[in-house]
Design goal:
By secondary structure, the protein is α/β, with parallel strands linked by helices. The protein has one domain (10-277): TIM Barrel (Alpha-Beta Barrel). The chain has helices at 26-38, 49-54, 56-64, 83-101, 118-125, 147-150, 157-175, 198-203, 215-231, 243-246, 251-263, 271-277; strands spanning 10-18, 43-47, 68-71, 107-108, 130-131, 135-136, 182-183, 189-190, 193-194, 235-240, 267-269. Helix 1 links the parallel strand 1 and strand 2 (43-47). It is globular and about 55 Å long. Bound molecules: zinc ion (ZN). Zinc ion binds next to loops.
Length: 280
């Protein structure tokens, strides 16, 4: 697979999905965007066409604040159909953004990351440039009994970490989710997304269910993943932090992560910008 060459060896992309826009009010979006603006970080929000149509002023607000809106499907439903049905759904999604916001959608993340092999070809045929529907794990905290509830709080974490990193590598190898974005079809760059999202840490019943006053722990886990990526030679870490869950109660997690990512030497970018700078 041909991979993207990036100038800096450690790059972070902040992303957050918006499924329905029911709870992502302007009051909730404002502190999230202001935090990013303080660090000059541009976020990419994957929004369903249905949500953007129902709450155009909220999508417009993100765009006016100079952050990015990309596609999260026509509706919030997994992409498991045939290639032709998926192409129709993606084209319908693009039409809504083009008609309502005069916006040319370039990127896509499948709802709940649920997709099949036909999705990549459909994304290509629909004229999109990048996809974020795969997951990647630097450290496989998730899906491992006992570990998933405790993460770095485990007394034995220091000893378990090399094994969890190895498990992450095996997952990435099996899922074909490399450190650097790769062309998954001739025109579509794949940016695998870190599988440890805000949902894994707050919402998932199998997870630690951190409270807002434990936000720093979330930031520490994300930094740990980034440091692990750096140690392996760097790459692009695409973070998922849904505004509906993170803002405003858990924003300290993102603040901590950005501060420490900068200290690790990371630069912030967006999948769209990285896809545009690619030399092929
Ligand atoms: Zn979603």
């Amino acid at each position: 697979m041909e991979s993207l060459e990036v100038a800096n060896d450690l790059v972070v992309c902040v992303t957050g999905d918006i499924d329905y826009f029911r709870v992502e009010t302007i009051e909730r979006l404002e502190p999230y965007l202001s935090l990013l603006d303080r660090y000059g970080v541009k976020a990419t929000f994957f929004v369903t066409a249905r949500a953007a149509e129902e709450y155009p002023e909220r999508a417009e607000y993100i765009l006016k604040r100079d952050h990015l809106v990309e596609g999260h499907g026509d509706v919030h439903k997994g992409f498991y159909e045939s290639e032709s049905v998926q192409i129709d759904r993606l084209n319908a999604m693009k039409r809504v953004f083009s008609k309502v916001f005069d916006l040319e959608i370039e990127g896509f993340r499948a709802p709940w990351y649920k997709h099949n092999p036909a999705t990549y070809l459909a994304v290509d045929r629909a004229g999109l440039r990048y996809d974020c529907s795969k997951k990647r794990f630097e450290i496989a905290f998730k899906g491992v009994p006992f570990v998933q509830k405790r993460y770095m709080d485990m007394a034995t974490y220091r000893y378990a970490k090399p094994l969890l990193e190895l498990a992450g590598s095996l997952y990435n190898l099996y899922s074909k989710s490399p450190r650097l974005p790769c062309y998954i079809t001739s025109n579509v760059l794949e940016f695998p997304t870190l599988g440890i999202s805000d949902y894994s840490l707050i919402g998932d019943p199998r997870g630690p269910r951190y409270r807002p006053d434990e936000s720093i722990k979330m930031g520490e886990i994300w930094v740990e993943c980034l440091a692990s990526l750096k140690q392996r030679g760097g790459g692009v870490l695409t973070l998922q932090a849904h505004p509906c869950r993170v803002s405003p109660e858990y924003l300290a997690s993102l603040d901590y992560f950005i501060q420490h990512a900068l200290r690790l030497g990371a630069v912030f970018s967006t999948p769209g910008d990285l896809a545009r700078t690619v030399s092929r």
